[in-house]
Amino acid sequence: MIKNILVNFKRYSFLMRQLISRDFKVKYKRSVLGVVWSLLYPILMMVVMSIVFSQMFRFKVDGINYLVYLMTGIVMWQYFSEATNNAMTSVVSNFALISKVYIPKYIFPLSKCIFVGINFVLTLIPWLGLIILTQFGLGEFPASINWYYLIIPYIFLCFFLFTVGVGLLLSCVSVFLRDVFYIYGIILTIWNYFTPVFYSIEILPQKLQSLFQLNPLYQFITAVRSIVLYGARPSFMTLGIIGLIGVGTLVVGSIVFKKNQDKFIYYI
């Protein structure tokens, strides 16, 4: 299926652009600030969560800028949760279009991940702005600016592949089992607490740390934090694991989706 995606991507690029454009129009319809919310949302979330966790609960990570630590987790988690949620409902919500004309069905979850990905790129603007501001005294410690930033696009690409793979799996399963719409919300809540967005796993017992490190999102977020906060290059093993997680999840999601897509019409 991956080969077909690459071959058909250009053929259906117009449809892809229309789907993404439609999502933008729907999301920001009657919104005064429009796309600006993509920049404001992570900032406002960071402010609220930093007040709650650093001031009220006294969460901090020794030796690094907690604001950058927190915002890195927020923007990456927000992308994953929003993209997979949107991808999950994409096939079912486009039944009218699927039943009338032939369209590669993977386009729907893929377009959702790309649409949310565009918003994700926009959120990187305030994220980078925050990193720069730490050089001028924002926070107790400055973030690191180094050549290892060139590795970050690779990490984000693997993160995107992982998200698309999960989105394909969810969009397929949700056709046959609508309860997934509700179950996944609970799973995301649990997953959020198992992902070190606002805390460090170093506060946990060693056995729990080993368990939490099995979380794929932990690997992606920690790799970016290593570069931004510690100025350290993730190990080649870590970069390899990230690549395997991204490609492996995409392959599994693609196989499951392709195997079941012809049955969608009977269940939607």
Jot down its keywords:
globular, mainly alpha, 268 residues
Structural description of this entry:
The structure is a single chain. The chain has a domain at about 70-125 and about 145-265. It is globular, with a radius of gyration of 19 Å. It has helices at about 1-10, 15-25, 35-55, 65-95, 95-100, 105-135, 150-175, 180-195, 205-210, 215-230, 235-260, 265. By secondary structure, it is mainly α. The model has no long low-confidence stretch (mean pLDDT about 85).
Structural class, judged by helices and strands?
mainly alpha
Largest sheet: none
Q: Characterize the overall form.
A: globular
Strand content: under 5%
Count of β-strands: 0
| Strand and helix order | HHHHHHHHHHHH
CA radius of gyration: 19 Å
Q: For the terminal residues, how far apart are their CA atoms?
A: 22 Å
Number of helices: 12
Poorly predicted runs = none
Query: Roughly how much helix do the residues carry, as a percent range?
Result: over 70%
Instruction: Please give the oligomerization state of what you see.
Output: single chain
How confident is the prediction overall: mean pLDDT? 86
Detail the topology: elements first, then pairings.
Blueprint: H1 2-11, H2 13-27, H3 36-56, H4 66-93, H5 95-98, H6 107-134, H7 152-176, H8 180-193, H9 206-212, H10 216-230, H11 236-260, H12 264-267
Quick recap of the structure?
The chain is mostly helical and 268 residues long.
